[in-house]
Write a structure and sequence with these properties.
By secondary structure, the protein is of the alpha+beta class. The chain has 3 domains: 231 residues, Bira Bifunctional Protein, Domain 2 (BirA Bifunctional Protein, domain 2), CATH 3.30.930; 129 residues, no CATH class; 39 residues. Helix content is 44%, strand content 18%. It contains 15 helices and 14 strands. Strands 1, 2, 3, 4, 5, 6, 7, 8 and 9 form a 9-stranded mixed β-sheet that branches. Strand 6 and strand 7 form a beta hairpin. Helix 8 runs antiparallel to helix 9. The longest helix has 35 residues. The radius of gyration is 24 Å and the shape is globular. Bound molecules: glycine.
């Protein structure tokens, strides 16, 4: 099989669907527009919801995109495993009331086998348990033997992500071979190990879900497909994980260079290397889309990721600021698909440096205090750090609660989240009554993008 880079694969996909009458759109911003159900765009279809529901008319009823996405649901696993990440690119082709199952299935097969050149004998489709129509298409039109088509239930073959358009789906798995397998007798498509990995998801979008399991039938039958670009590259480049594909390896290598270390020498260090490699992509892209670090909403996600990466930099022995150096690699690797990265390079670097400087002032002290707190916990045989202590780390040393939690969980302890929220509330109420008597200098979104509160940047 010919090996293609991430940037080539993105181009090949978009050009293929343009040749099938699709309009290529640039990736939408990571910041959702008119959608309060999401903090950050988490799939290719998310920015297109109004076209699926019929609220808005699409520029064409066939569209193709490569969408930048962030998912933080599994953030605690990022770095620990080789397959989790917060940032990824999602390739997609979409039909708004135009083509449906026949074309979507045929084109996904054509792209994977004829354009990318994956071995058809290693590809296995799955369908929703009672979707006989999709089964028949795979069997009769594509020619897959019935025993090689898998029927799965709602957990695997019904796509929905929070509220919005959703429906049964048909996925395509690729068999990476025994070397990636668990070797268990029942290991086949659907096994949790790394042998059979899902590369493509054809969603037959027929419903609008309210996020609580209630569905209404959509007027149009639509197609929403998703293929993780880094995951496809993992297969095409025959590498172990997303952290080994060309664009991510370039960042990983830079992390190792800055830390004077090597990947896959020390498993603990590998966790830090992977976390930093992942998080720097998220914050670089978020910065380019105008997200700024703060203590709430998507700004909190930004801050938590950047500070988490900064702490892992410390664990690797990196001194001083290093995120901007890494952001330059992210920009170099991804500007092909996202020219806005290059256009906003100076701003991104400035923003990352400001946030990192701020945390650098308190991180070492905070880490020392936390180490003392951990010792006290151990002495008293406790496993939960009191809310007040968590709050102190947050308020004085800038440790987002999730960062404190992550650090403690590495040693089997955790935090009192309720106690933390109560301590926050006490501070909020105190601050509010203090504000009643203080003249405020509150400047909203100044030119550098930060808020000022009593002349202190917050
Ligand atoms: N929207 C389909 C997918 O992300 O898999």
């Amino acid at each position: 099989m010919q090996v293609y880079g991430v940037n080539e694969l993105r181009k090949m996909f978009l050009e293929f669907f343009e040749s099938k009458g699709h309009l290529k759109l640039n990736s939408f911003s990571l910041v959702p527009h008119n959608d309060n159900s999401l903090l950050l765009i988490n799939s290719g279809m998310a920015p297109l919801k109004p076209y699926f529901t019929g609220q808005e008319i699409p520029p064409r009823n066939r569209v193709t995109t490569c969408q930048k996405c962030i998912r933080t649901g599994d953030i605690e696993n990022v770095g620990k495993t080789a397959r989790h990440g917060t940032f990824f690119e999602m390739l997609g082709n979409f039909s708004f009331g135009d083509y449906f199952k026949h074309e979507a299935i045929a084109w996904s097969w054509e792209f994977l086998t004829e354009v990318v050149g994956l071995d058809p004998n290693r590809l296995y489709p799955s369908v929703y348990e009672n979707d006989d129509e999709a089964f028949e298409i795979w069997n009769k039109e594509i020619g897959i033997a019935p025993e090689n088509i898998f029927r799965f239930g709602k957990k695997d073959n019904f796509w929905e992500h929070g509220a919005g358009p959703c429906g049964p789906c048909s996925e395509i798995y690729y068999d990476r071979g025994e070397k990636y397998g668990c070797g268990e007798p029942g290991c086949t498509v659907g096994c949790e190990c790394d042998r059979y990995i899902e590369v493509w998801n054809n969603v037959f979008t027929q419903f609008n879900g309210d996020g609580n399991g209630n569905y209404t039938e959509l007027e149009n039958k639509n197609i929403d497909t998703g293929m993780g670009l880094e995951r496809l590259a993992t297969v095409v480049q025959d590498v172990t994980s997303i952290f080994d594909v060309d664009t991510m390896k370039a960042i990983r290598d830079k992390v190792c260079e800055l830390a004077h270390t090597e990947y896959q020498v020390d498993t603990k260090k590998d966790v830090s290397i992977r976390k930093i490699t992942d998080h720097i992509r998220s914050v670089t892209f978020m910065a380019s889309d105008g997200v700024i670090p703060s203590n709430e909403g998507r700004g909190y996600v930004f801050r938590r990721l950047l500070r988490g990466a900064a702490r892992h930099g410390r664990l690797l022995g990196i001194e001083g600021n290093f995120m901007a150096e890494l952001a330059k690699v992210v920009i170099r690797e991804s500007k092909d698909g996202y020219p806005e990265l290059e256009e906003k390079k100076e701003y991104i670097i400035k923003l990352l440096n400001i946030e990192e400087d701020k945390f650098n002032k308190t991180i070492d002290q905070g880490l020392n205090i936390l180490a003392e707190m951990e010792k006290e916990l151990e002495k008293s045989n406790k496993k939960i750090l009191a809310g007040e202590d968590v709050f102190k780390l947050y308020d004085t040393y800038g440790f987002p609660i999730d960062l404190t939690k992550e650090i403690l969980e590495e040693k089997g302890s955790t935090v009192d989240e309720k106690g933390f929220r109560e301590a926050m509330e006490v501070q909020r109420v105190t601050a509010r009554s203090a504000r009643g008597t203080t003249l405020l200098c509150y400047q909203r979104w100044t030119s550098c993008g930060f808020r000022y509160y009593n002349d202190q940047r917050c």
